[in-house]
Amino acid sequence: MKRAGILLFCCLLHSILATAQYKAVYFDYEKMVFGENQPLPAEAHLMLQGDVQEKIELVEIDVFEHAGKDSRLPVYTSIWKRSKDKIQNRFMLPVNYKLKGSGEYDLNIKYYTPIIKSEREHLDKALHHHLFMYLEQVLGLHKNSISLDQNDRQIIRSLNKIVHKGLALYRNRTDTEFEGFSDLVQYKLKQISTVKLSKGKLLFQKETKDEARADYRTKLLNELKDMISSELDQYLNLEWLKLTDNKYIDNYSTEKTKRTIAIQVGFGGAYLSSSGNSVAIGASPFVGLAFPLSRRTSKGKVLNNLSINLGFFLMDFTGANNTIVSGPIFKRPTYIGLSYKLFRFIHFNAGATFLEDAATAGQFNGIEKNVYIRPYIGISAQVDLWMDFSK
After folding, report:
1. Distance separating alpha carbons of residues 9 and 16, to the nearest angstrom
2. Which residues pair with 201 in a beta bridge?
3. CATH 2.60.40 residue window(s) in the chain
4. N or C: which terminus of the chain has fewer CB atoms within 10 Å of its end residue's CB?
């Protein structure tokens, strides 16, 4: 028991020291390589560094899986913003995404500079123009009504898409996302689609019916445009930057992953038998191997933390009437099951134990009759070990 405790403590200490570390990687702008054209570190968080000109205020990196369509979304995005003192001319960009070993990734590093007043005015004018042009296409004007070629929700989604597309090459310093046009705009669309233009005669009494309808139609559309302009201008009243340069690195390799084996050391208990109100439980330290069900960089949180594990308990169990319960093969209770990572290196284990009377343990004759199965649970610490046979 004492030796098992020392081994468990060593595993925990190793895991603590191995966490929360960044590997520094320098990006050479001219050569478009990292370091001296070394592969990117795998299975680790990166701190990407590179030199920038004084006018660069923001740097953004997109990481793409190599396999996929050109329109695929990045698996990870991170940004660096220059501090207000503007002293530093080097960006430091954390990449909190562990790259798979022995693979390839596409990376896009983008550089942004502040826009000037005339560029802001041009951006504002272009967005308003596209939004209003779209409204003219979907609003059908009739003699006594205004119809919507699409329902109000579809129109709102299209208006939001126009804004997002128009700002695709821009970023703001506060990294504020456009949340979309409000319910008030949607309500105004519903109102426009149900109003009778003939009521315009009551608002414009000095005009003819046709003139009153036309003026009422114009009034409603202007109110809608004013609402859209007000909400858009509120969002555009931020400190904006535009994309001025980018470096796209295609098919960049990562380090070759070393072959690892995961060892688990822990303490668990197994249900042995019950008789009336008496339940026999066996408990002991255990040691075994773990095989992850997915890569560490998998997007599935459950699968990413789940492993198949097998091993044996270090001590025999004491069953009912002080009988000694052992197991096959190792002459110790043997287990197989699943483990789930609860926190960093701590895992919860559950599965089945293969048990056998100590008198027949280790014998292959009659093993199918002597061995029986019981459930077990436990807590373990897991550490990855690797072996390198290279020179």
Report:
1. 11
2. none
3. 21-115+243-253
4. C
Count Cβ atoms below 10 Å from residue 307 Cβ, excluding itself. 22
Q: The tokens 């197991």 sit on which residue?
A: 327
Closest alpha carbon to 194 in 147, 124, 231, 234? 147
User: b/e for 40-74, b at 16 or more Cβ within 10 A?
Assistant: bbbbbbbebebebeeebbbbbbbbbbeeeeeeeeb
Helix-helix angle 183-194:152-166, to 10 degrees: 130
Sequence-ordered list of residues with C-beta below 8 angstroms from that of 57, at least 6 positions apart, any chain: 81, 82, 112, 113, 114, 173, 241
- 334 CB burial (10 A radius; 0-12, 13-18, 19+): buried
Distance, CA of 313 to CA of 227 (rounded, Å): 71
Q: Are 383 and 339 contacting, i.e. CB atoms less than 8 angstroms apart?
A: no
Q: Return the amino acid letter for 238.
A: L
DSSP label at residue 54 = T
- Kindly report the CATH number that applies to the domain delimited by 21-115+243-253: 2.60.40
Q: How far is CA 119 from CA 56, 164, 231, 244, 287, in A?
A: 17, 17, 20, 13, 65
Q: What angle do CA 246, 67, 169 make, to 5 degrees?
A: 25
Tell the burial category of 326 from Cβ atoms under 10 Å away from its Cβ (0-12, 13-18, 19+).
buried
Q: How does DSSP classify residue 186? A: H
Neighbours of 90 (CB within 10 A): 10
Rounded Cα gap, residues 51 and 59, in angstroms: 11
- Residue whose entry in the numeric block shows the structure tokens 């046009």: 181
Pair 374, 272: CB distance under 8 Å: yes
Mean pLDDT, each 10-residue run in order, the chain (391 residues): 46 44 92 94 92 95 81 90 84 92 92 96 96 90 80 95 97 95 94 79 67 78 94 96 96 83 91 85 93 64 83 91 87 93 89 90 78 93 69 41
